[in-house]
Amino acid sequence: MSSKKIGILGASGYTGADAVRLLARHPNAEIVALTANTHAGKSMGDVFPHFFMLDLPKLVEWEKVDWSKLDAVFCGLPHGTTQEIIAAVLEANPKIKVLDMSADFRLRDKNTYAQWYGHEHRALELQGEAVYGLTEFYREKIASARLVACPGCYPTAALLALVPLAKAKLIDVDDLVIDAKSGVTGAGRGLKQSTLFSEVGEGLSPYSVGTHRHAPEIEQEIGVAAGHAVTVNFTPHLIPMARGELCTSYVKLNGATPDDLRTALEKAYGNEPFVHVANKGVMPQTQNVRGSNYVQIGVFPDRIKNRAIVISVLDNLVKGSAGQAIQNMNLMFGFPETAGLEQIALFP
């Protein structure tokens, strides 16, 4: 298969850098444009020294890229800045494939977006076109899409664990408690007091309690599975590690058993290359998936009658961001879905 010419918007951030790391060894991808307005003129090796061995284009301002020459673009820009830039890119090249790793196109309802992100959506015609990029659930739509809104890391972990159970009506979707913990890269690479080593090390911190913007994304997709609107109890926490995510979901059973949940998940993911259901009694751990595109899910009985605990782990920068985006790109171009993504977890 011929290679596709790839650009990355926001290549100086953690998600952009992981896209570079993975695409650099992708058999069908050629990185030809990297943007980072604040680092324009620098090499990627200057910004991320671990790329010293790669022959990569220099970072430039996004306005200076000839988008008409590219086949696909990955967007690792912050939410709010992405909409107008992607609109401009698509105007310059209507045939380009867009893999957006920001939150700007994930929510289908314009009012929900405005409520949670504090402003009206600035590219409503594109918001209506975007396909939600949770690969395992929207594979066919992704394959024919022009714009894919790749899910957030927390929703990916939570939804992979819960959507098959909601669809099978094995759990009460009106009684979901999701306790999630993420590595510090989930907060981005920008300098913030709350992510300084002295502030985050040797501790565990909840944040955005009751107000995190991934909650409506989780509710949107579980609502689709359940057939009606839902509200979830979702609390994220910051853990003093670079990458990784663990999501613990507490569920009420609808006459099912924990073994029924495990069976339903095994049926849903039996043929999936990256989502694996742990054997009974095996505890998912972030170490099992670090640096990889794999997800591990485990089911455990709660000591409270008619309840169970579902635990899912992933790497927030890979399956939770850049890896899933590449998985979607593979579908969009008809490449093998696993191309460039079969790295085994880095352990220890």
Structure annotation, total helices: 11
Which class best fits the helix and strand makeup? Answer: alpha/beta
Helix percentage: 25-40%
CATH class of the largest domain: Alpha Beta
Mean pLDDT: 95
From the alpha-carbon coordinates, what is the Rg to the nearest angstrom? 20 Å
**What CATH architecture of the largest domain would you give?**
2-Layer Sandwich
Beta strands, count:
14
Shape: globular
Largest sheet: 7 strands, parallel
Structure description:
This protein is an alpha/beta fold. The protein has 2 domains: 126 residues, NAD(P)-binding Rossmann-like Domain (Rossmann fold); 163 residues, Dihydrodipicolinate Reductase, domain 2. It is built from 11 helices and 14 strands. The strands form 2 sheets. It has a 7-stranded parallel beta sheet, with helices on both faces. A 7-stranded mixed beta sheet has the order 9-10-8-11-14-13-12. Helix 6 links the parallel strand 6 and strand 7. Helix 1 crosses helix 11 and helix 7 runs parallel beside helix 9. The protein is globular and about 60 Å long. 48% of the residues are buried.
Nutshell version of this structure?
With 348 residues, the protein is α/β, with parallel strands linked by helices.
Strand and helix layout:
Elements: E1 4-9, H1 14-23, E2 29-35, H2 44-47, E3 59-60, E4 72-75, H3 82-92, E5 97-100, H4 110-117, H5 124-129, E6 131-132, H6 135-143, E7 147-149, H7 153-167, E8 171-182, H8 197-200, E9 205-206, H9 215-226, E10 233-238, E11 245-253, H10 258-269, E12 275-277, E13 295-301, E14 307-314, H11 318-333
Parallel strand pairs: 1-2, 1-4, 2-3, 4-5, 5-7, 6-7, 8-10, 12-13
Antiparallel strand pairs: 8-11, 9-10, 11-14, 13-14
